[in-house]
Amino acid sequence: MPMPPRLVSLTAFAAALLAGCATAPQQARPLADGTRADVAILETTDLHANVLSYDYYKVKPDSSLGYERTTTLIRRARAEFPNNFLFDSGDTIQGTVLADYQAQVKPIGCDEELAIYRAMDAIGYDGGTAGNHEFNYGLPFLSQVTGTPMNVEGGHSDRCAGPHFPLVLSNVYSARDGQPIFKPWAVVEKNIQVTDPSGKTHSAPLKIGIIGFTPPPILEWDKQNLAGKVTVTGVVEAAKRYLPELQAQHPDLIVAVLHGGLNTDTYTSEMENGGWYLAAIPGIDVLLLGHSHTEFPGPHYESMQDVDAKRGFVRGTPAVMAGFFGKDLGVIKLALDRQNGHWVIDKAQTHSEVRPICPKKNECVPVDPVIAPLVAQAHEAAVAHVNTTIGESALRMSSYFADEGNMTALAAVNAAQRDYVINELPKLHPELAKLPVLSAAAAFRTGFGGPDDYTDVAAGPLTLRSAADLYFYPNTLAAVKVDGAGLKAWLEKSAERFNRIDPSKAGEQALINDHYPGFNFDQIQGGIAYTIDVSKPVGQRITRLTFQGKPVSPKQLFIVATNNYRASGGGNFPGLDGNNIVLAAPDGAREILAKWLQRQQQIGSKDLQPTSWRFAPLKTAGPIVFKGAAGKQDVAHATGLSTIRQLCDNGEGNATYAIDLTR
Question: pLDDT digit string (tens) for 451-460?
């Protein structure tokens, strides 16, 4: 457990005065220049409420993730580095069925601590920040479960049970009084072991200041929960506002805890991943990153300007970004040198690394036995809840080949969203009742997290778990009004999921653009049909777009059902910035889907619209390939994708496939 801050006992001091011993509390002796210390900064991020190594969608253990295994890494790192501090970079309370159960199905009381925080408190943290997904359940819930009184609409004025460590956030403010909804910064002090120039070791205090940041686009992504209640500034602006206050506390080091990644584009106050710019701000000594679900240091950042992606420096500042879902622990080994009465980071002896819970497939560290008993009751209740039967399906609905044209998983989502808007929109806007309603959905699980990270709902009984598998995030439903030109632009943006293919190239070409996330590949249904020509440049790939068999004209009007994230600007789709929303539903998209499945009772192919798009025929000199889960060729063929074949099994559950685009 981390050592508590050093406190002076006023009672003991007063007693000493009364006894005639009017001596001040003993001051720590000054540290000589040349004193050295090694300190580890440990980081978790994007835990997304994965407390246990368990897949709630498959209802079985999953050793590849889970905080109960990260805890083992934390204990090992603390044994290796007795001088240590542990921080969390956000996206902590949302992301699993367990989280939804405690927030939406059977909300916990003010006197109860959230399961993920109970687990984190068992190991002990020194601080953390809030990510964008902390806001998904609304400010009243966030105020309650973090134990943070907030002067916002619905915020708690009393202090409920929350984590036993400080949460800091400097760039989100109450619209009522302009004050931060969390403390913008905090100072943590511990005694560490140091080695003086003579080689002797002794204990000395180390004060670390922490300042937190979340992505500014939360106002767009969670507009329904945040509009009119909070304001947000850019991360650089917030740092410049609050760093002087923090520096006035004379900390030895300042750690920026950012729920964000790295982006070298021109800075704006709305920048989602502002870590590259924070790293250059004077006063910030260490940078903790998150949000991007991509490890740093790591190969993804090797070509980035002023970034050492091997030793873990961003513009000369030590930095780390652990993985996600509890898959990794971030470790920065800081070498400190005492110079001119201050601690200075010896950068030549400092480095960062990301330590995985599974160095190899099926070779994972054991669970820490302390964690599971702490959350057993909530876990069992969540499992029982998602196993509630709501219907039956005659077909398998999967996302294994969603990028290549298998829309079985998306078609159910689109059908449910479209049905909801058709029924609800005329009540609010009767003047829009005659406009055709389309629906857009993206496959949230397309293998980014590994070969098991796909939606796969078998034919047979459907449960609430099936709905949660089909719709991964707790978005609310929204509908927007677009014209034909806007619809085409939407599809063009989605088509950035694919690399540009050169038909004359003889070697292999990768179909999928790994830098464009699968959850931004919207596939739209509702009577439209379109083709994607991957030989064309970005912005010119939708070569045929029809509605009910007729070409879509640029001024033709449509209503498109989607989610609040996309409708409010998430993903930076052209024309989607929140201004053309015509329906902002209070209902969650997942709940809408579950109710639709329940009403249908029996789901067959006749209940779902056929795949709305195809690749334009393209003859290539060499093979077009993509990565996927191994052994799933039969899934592709069963849904009519007969042009897909598995080329080789790459091991660890992964395979390379080829797709023939000539047909």
Answer: 999 999 999 9
